[in-house]
Design goal:
14 helices, 445 residues, alpha+beta, D-amino Acid Aminotransferase, Chain A, domain 1, 3 domains, Dna Ligase, domain 1, Rossmann fold
Length: 445
């Protein structure tokens, strides 16, 4: 493994570029036609255009990425995060072309991509799961399972992930009404219309565990993260470690995550996600990739997760045991998006002008912004991730509040003021978190 093609854009492309450089690897950036002047393109030693603005014909095009590998001589591909990072098809095509896919093997990706099969596998390993159905073949089967499980229920896409493809149903009539539309949406979004039902937990917390596993069977965790502050199942604020958990619950979550990783034959960097309800917890899914919120775990451990990905993909052992992983302090991440909370969080586009960006002790900004860049309508609205780290949660929270106040850009509308409201909210300050947290903020949903 000598040259890595970075099959993504924005701040994660920059992170991979930096990690590759630190590992002594060459790197190739890819870009769509409107992003010729993007920061990840300018920073890369080599870059190649892979298509027009439409992401399906550029960043999400497997043929275009394979052609880029052939043209540049790249012998490895890092998908970053996003749709292709969980694509068994991409991993399979890479293997067929002799290209190292920086991520789990294709068979693991297929297993993790089938939420029902993954749930069954980890349940056999003794990991708690929510009561639910298998994949539903008909509306009659859906009704039968709904009556057995009892309402309210979650209707979920078996091939979904990242909070997408989820609906709450409260009655038989509602289930029958949304079922055809949900099947079609799942088919269009994920290429698979299979749905399943799962018991609905009304006000849980969303807690995940960062795991790393090498090809020799060594698995370690980097502790918990709390991703409870969400809007429409999309994360806005993340922190590590998850606050307010008893030592016993924290240990049980970590042990369950390692058991789940072993049961799935996991290799690479990934996240095991759980719902936490009091002292009970339940496996949700595996995110078989680097997560947007990975910097909060890096802050606690002092290691680079992207470099760990590259090392594992190169066949190297982790080189350390669980007892050598030391977690220090508390970290919080906020996602600064180009979107307008006053207009239902609609994306905002325009020419970006930077007045001030935060910095100082315990403050990190991951971004691909630059003065005068065009914020385009074609891609994710993420502008930057602000990460703060302190000895205590309160120190990290106060640093975040100050950092957000100093994050001042113009030309596009951002969610900065909304995030300030979240960080300053008494319930957030006290760690009183649940997935309905944003319902306490006017105009948040």
């Amino acid at each position: 493994m000598e040259k890595v093609l970075i099959a993504n854009r924005g701040e994660i492309a920059l992170r991979i570029l930096e990690a590759a450089r630190e590992e002594g690897l060459s790197a190739v950036a890819v870009f769509s036609e409107p992003e010729r002047g993007a920061l990840h393109v300018r920073e890369a030693p080599e870059a190649v255009c892979i298509g027009p603005a439409d992401p399906r014909r550029s960043y999400l095009s497997i043929p275009a990425l394979m052609a880029a590998c052939e043209v540049t001589g790249a012998d490895a591909l890092h998908p970053g995060y996003g749709f292709l990072s969980e694509s068994a098809e991409l991993a399979e095509v890479c293997a067929a072309h002799g290209i190292t896919f920086v991520g789990p093997p294709q068979e693991v990706l297929r297993l993790c991509g089938d939420k029902v099969a993954a749930k069954e596998r980890v349940a056999h390993a003794g990991v708690p799961v929510l009561p639910g159905s298998p994949g539903l073949a008909s509306s009659e089967e859906a009704l039968d399972w709904a009556r057995r499980l009892g309402f309210p229920l979650l209707l979920k896409a078996a091939a979904g992930g990242g909070g997408r493809g989820i609906r709450i149903v409260g009655s038989e009539e509602e289930l029958l009404s949304v079922l055809p539309r949900a099947q079609e949406e799942a088919r269009l979004a994920f290429g698979d219309g299979t749905l399943f039902l799962e018991r609905y937990v009304p006000s849980p917390r969303h807690v995940e565990v960062q795991i790393l596993a090498d090809a020799r069977g060594e698995v370690v965790h980097w502790g918990t993260r709390d991703c409870t502050v969400q809007r429409r199942h999309q994360k806005l604020v993340e922190e590590a470690p998850a606050p307010g958990l008893s030592p016993e619950l924290r240990a049980a979550l970590a042990q369950a995550a390692v058991r789940a990783a072993r049961a799935l034959g996991y290799v690479g960097v990934g996240t095991i996600e759980f719902l936490v309800d009091g002292e009970d917890f339940y496996f949700i899914e595996v995110n078989p990739r680097i997560q947007v919120e990975h910097p909060v775990s890096e802050a606690l451990v002092g290691r680079n997760l992207v470099r760990e990905q590259l090392r594992i993909a190169r066949g190297e052992p982790l080189g350390y045991k669980q007892e050598q992983v030391e977690l220090w302090g508390h970290a919080i991440e906020c996602r600064l998006n180009a979107e307008d909370p006053a207009r239902g969080f609609l994306p905002s586009t325009g020419k970006l002008f930077i007045e001030c960006l935060p910095g100082g002790v315990g403050v990190r900004v991951d971004s691909a912004m630059f003065q005068g860049m065009d914020v385009l309508p074609y891609y994710d609205p993420l502008l930057a991730k602000v990460i703060t780290h302190g000895e205590t949660r309160e120190e990290a929270r106060m640093r975040m509040y100050s950092a957000l106040r100093r994050f001042r850009v113009h030309g596009v509308t951002t969610n900065r003021d909304f995030l300030l409201e979240v960080i300053a909210h008494p319930d957030f300050a006290a760690g009183r978190l649940s997935t309905d947290f944003l319902e306490r903020l006017p105009g948040a949903i």
